[in-house]
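Session log. Operator J.P. requested a structure for one protein chain; no other inputs attached. Running the standard single-chain path with token output.
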Amino acid sequence: MPGGYVQALSHCVFCDGLFSYNPHKVPSVRVYGERQPVCESCMTWINAFRAQKDLKPLEILPGAYDPMPEEEL
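Structure written below.
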């Protein structure tokens, strides 16, 4: 029997938009000592801004915004 999937759901720390993600892979930033998730749209914007400044893009792990197999919990 195949397993199920799990997704976390929260607001992006930058745009406050609601989005789902894999909690083990989503990019995040530390705010007041706690990690806060960043949505894919904001990460795309951040990396475009970094490119304009000749900075390397921040890594987005494959599957960061996909459901996580429940076996990975």
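Operator note: The first strand starts at residue 5 and ends at 6.
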